């Protein structure tokens, strides 16, 4: 029987490294283009904001961001002109954010980079066995399990 704890811990380490590598790839892409003003986390936040107009809380729930970092990074993105913010009419405490034209350009750069990577991975056969869709299904199950564990704490 395989060592499930060891395998599980290895998976967690791989996930952490993959996330860090993704941020490094984003950083390198923007440096290559001579656009070093955004941090990789800010650029990923812009990408994940997408076409939507959302609150900071909604954005936090979509991505891999800690609460205070979302507020700080959104403030910086507004100051740099990548994100527009506006107070909600119904709830003046809540702020809705959306991309500006500059933010949409950043989103396009990251989208093109992800598309290049997906095509390269597909061409190399890395994603064939097991199929990426199966891997994603497994990670969604882990995500649900973790979410249930958090609910049981409270």
TrEMBL record:
Gene3D superfamilies per the UniProt record, alphabetical: Winged helix-like DNA-binding domain superfamily/Winged helix DNA-binding domain
InterPro entries: HTH_MarR-typ, MarR/SlyA-like, Tscrpt_reg_MarR-type_CS, WH-like_DNA-bd_sf, WH_DNA-bd_sf
GO MF annotations, alphabetized: DNA binding; DNA-binding transcription factor activity
Keywords: DNA-binding, Transcription, Transcription regulation
Transcription regulation among keywords: yes
Highest taxon of the lineage: Bacteria
Domain HTH marR-type residues, every copy: 8-144
GO BP annotation list: response to stress
Alphabetized Pfam families for the sequence: HTH_27
Protein name: MarR family transcriptional regulator
Organism: Paracoccus sphaerophysae
